[in-house]
TrEMBL record:
It comes from Ditylenchus destructor. It holds the Pfam family 2OG-FeII_Oxy. Residues 11-91 form the Isopenicillin N synthase-like Fe(2+) 2OG dioxygenase domain. Gene3D superfamilies: B-lactam Antibiotic, Isopenicillin N Synthase, Chain. It comes from the Eukaryota. This is 2OG-Fe(II) oxygenase superfamily domain-containing protein.
């Protein structure tokens, strides 16, 4: 199988995806493994919602940002066209981002992420991704 896009995580809030139900192509990596699984979209008029790095930050890791990729169709579906629509969400750049107290308590009582603005968070993620 050929990957069309390199694996990635989204830096902001939620990503809402209307995936093509026939061809598909979205895969997610299972945590702590090298195993990728396809994301099925079998329910008519449904959406796939990915939580991004900011959601992981706000929830102190309760909701994880998933590593995902898009793969090209296999030989039997190569003749089919594919249409996906994606909508990215995120806060205003001046929004203060820190783990929510309720999530900190649910994850052991210690904040796992620093308090930053959304702009600082995005710049840190971009800088880190450019050094890989």
């Amino acid at each position: 199988m050929f990957t069309k896009k390199k694996k990635n995580e989204h830096f902001q809030g939620f990503t809402i995806l209307r995936q093509d139900p026939v061809v598909g192509g979205l895969e997610v990596k299972l945590p702590s493994t090298d195993h990728w699984i396809p994301v099925s979209c079998d329910v008519e008029n449904s959406f796939v919602v990915n939580s991004g790095d900011l959601i992981q930050h706000w929830t102190n890791g309760l909701w994880r940002s998933n590593l995902h990729r898009v793969v090209n169709p296999g030989p039997s579906d190569a003749h089919l066209s594919r249409l996906s629509m994606v909508f990215f969400t995120g806060p205003n750049e001046k929004t203060f981002v820190e783990p929510l107290e309720c999530c900190v308590q649910l994850t052991g009582g210690e904040a796992l992420y620093p308090s930053v603005t959304a702009s600082e968070h995005l710049h840190m993620k971009l800088q880190k991704s450019n050094t890989k």
